[in-house]
Amino acid sequence: MSADDADVPAQRVKNVLIEDEMEQSYIDYAMSVIVGRALPDARDGMKPVQRRILYAMHEMGITSRSSHRKSSSIVGETMGNYHPHGDSAIYDALARMAQDFSLRYPLIDGQGNFGSTDGDPPAAMRYTEARMAPIAEELLADIEEDTVDFAGNYDDRLTEPAVLPAAVPNLLLNGASGIAVGMSTNIPPHNLTEVVDACIHLIDNPECTVEDLIAGPDGDGPVKGPDFPTGANIVGRQGIYDAYKTGRGRLRVRAEMDVEERDRGGDRIVITELPYQENKARRIERIADDVNEGKIQGISDIRDESDREGVRVVIDLKRGANTEIVKNKLLESHLETTFSVISLALVDDQPQVLNLKQLLEQYVEHRREVVRRRSQYRLDEAEDRAHILEGRLVALDNVDDVVELIRNSEDRDAAKEGLQSEFDLSEPQSEHIVRMQLGSLTSMEAGEVEDEYAEVQATIERLEEILENESELLGVIKDELREVREEYGDDRRTSIVEDFGSVTREDLIPEEDVFVCLTEDDYVKRMPVSEFDPQHRGGKGIIGVRPKDGDRVSTVFQANSHDYLMVFTNRGQVYRLKVYEIPEMSRTARGTNAVNVIDLDRDEEVTAVVNVDDLDEGGFFAMATKDGYVKRTEIEAFENVHSGGIRATKLEEGDRLVDVETTDGAQDLVIGTRQGMTIRFDETEARSMGRSARGVNGIKLQEGDEVAGIVATDDADDRDLLTVTRNGYGKRTALSEYRVQSRYGKGLIDIKTNERNGDACSLNAVSAGDGLVIMSESGQIMRTHVDEVSRQGRNTMGVKVMNLDAGDWVAGVDVVPVPAEDDADDADDADE
């Protein structure tokens, strides 16, 4: 810049605040994005790029009846004439309009690779070809008949439609999604038949409510809900109602699954429909990741067997896996998504959130304007044609005079002027007559003109009736909608299933009593109690588990499949477990490794199980260790047990937790040893301690002896103490026979342990009518009744309870309620 230029003062200076300028500039930019790119028009449901692609194809003559053309040529024509925003944006829009998994009614008939549900991108535009789908032509129908406004293109060389005539309600049929500045839209696709019926219903009942347009318990209208191109299921109707009434809602969309039996045993889950806009390959990959990480148990293989006919993802389950648990876990984590509805569209170039009725009203009003303008256009043409035909009829009636006048005229202009003055014709009529051929003056041609004139007059009358009578105009709209429904209507793909609340794993598990078995090598399983019939004392039982060589059963207990359990181990740890998380298996199965269910360390064994559902507030856990220590800890201290377990008690080197009992704080504790000694003392002698404490001495053990179990009782307790030995012998003795002593004494003799009996292995408080479950280390399970075991005094040997094979020993005893059917069976036996 020269010095002279620098001295020239500015002609006009405008002072503005920078924040005001930034605000206005941003608003201008935002509105440009909102109106020009991101949001669909409420009338034809199209964004500008989609509208321009279809119009460019229309101008190129690429209809559903023409041959396919290279996508690159369509993209180039669109970009050069109408949409100067880059070829990638145009091709992406074109490809999406060709995807039958994105649009419920695709607008482009594509040839080649236009992408897949696995997230594969379309092939390059030079490799694909396209033409209009038949339904797309309905969007452009009658566009040449002044049905819509046109505006100049980006460089004013050409004109383009501001909106398409849209003989189909495209916004609801194919939905729309887009993100603008500060706002977004997400309109789901719908079924054409339902939407057309809703339009007709609205035309017939303009005062109807949104509820009148919705099908379901709260309405009897035609629209059941969104209808996704990929099918699947919408869970519940509340989200649908919210979206239709307010323009916003959240839909839970769930995959469609079937369960098939495998030839080699076990089940397989077959996924046949995925939620809308779900990436199939990525979803399968994430399921596989969760299986590998142990988050989903029971799956052995995943295969994608999908083809052009549809989706088929096969998930093979391991033998013994609970199919319902796996299905529910898949739904929780992978196969149920949320579709957030935001019905935002442009109304008079302003973004508005519309409910269902408003969306339909916008379309119906648009069609009313289109049909009115089309009718007026056709009326004008018909009147022009009638005017010409009237002139032809005059010429035919005066054919000799007309021919003579034209022949004697100096030129064409003179002939026209003569016709106008002689026969009172207009300039267009005289122009037409002058251009007529002599062959059109025959009598046959005259008859055809008269017939055509009659038809044109009838057309004029009909068009005038449509324009003058609102009901006739609406009738035309309805008739055309019915034709569209007849041509393109189809059945729903998406089902609507009732929402019974959040589906949890527990909801899918039948509630039943089960036996849970654990082995020393940490194998665990559950089995229905119904598989084991009660036997008389001294029975052998039936196989309940078949441990591997070198392994032995360590614990058995009965629980309900829905119970929560506190699982205590020999190392003083406690875990929280839901029974149904333990795999159900057959009687002869070994079980699954417990690390799949409980996070046990190496050489850690379960020694006691407490049912959480039976716990009382304000109670205590009384814990006994092998070396005779006893400790009480408030139950509240175990409220938060995480998946990795927490410490229940501190143990000395070589000691281990043996048994756990619950107390109310005012009971007596009875501790029994392997050599048959017992001691009873007031539980308050063992003060309450924290979880990390070791406890206090509970009983003085003789050399080589160790604690076998612990029982809680009180003075009013009329139950018996059931003691069972390793060799399968046992007895019942009234708890009242065990006098209260001071803690840390030698105690009294409870049962004689000798070569016949073996060591005592289990102590339980029992009542008359209780049931017993006894399991041997080799895996035999026997159910019997407590009443089968005779009552005896202390210091006796007991009777045979379970008949064991040589080398087998009792592993565990559990006291359980006796089912009513067992009582009935006993009554039948007594009658016999």
Can you describe what's shown?
With 832 residues, the protein is of the alpha+beta class. Among the domains are: 33-161, Topoisomerase II, domain 5 (Alpha-Beta Complex), CATH 3.90.199; 256-334, Gyrase A, domain 2 (2-Layer Sandwich); 360-488, Topoisomerase, domain 3; 534-545 and 607-831, 6 Propeller (Neuraminidase), CATH 2.120.10.90. It has 19 helices and 43 strands. Strand 14 and strand 15 form a beta hairpin. The longest helix has 42 residues, at 356-397.
Distance between the termini: 123 Å
SS class: alpha+beta
Report the C-alpha radius of gyration, rounded: 44 Å
Task: Find the CATH topology of one domain.
Answer: Neuraminidase
Stretches with pLDDT under 50, minimum 5 residues: 826-832
Q: Which CATH-level-2 architecture of one domain?
A: 6 Propeller
Strand segment count: 43
Largest sheet: 4 strands, mixed
CATH class of one domain: Mainly Beta
Number of helices: 19
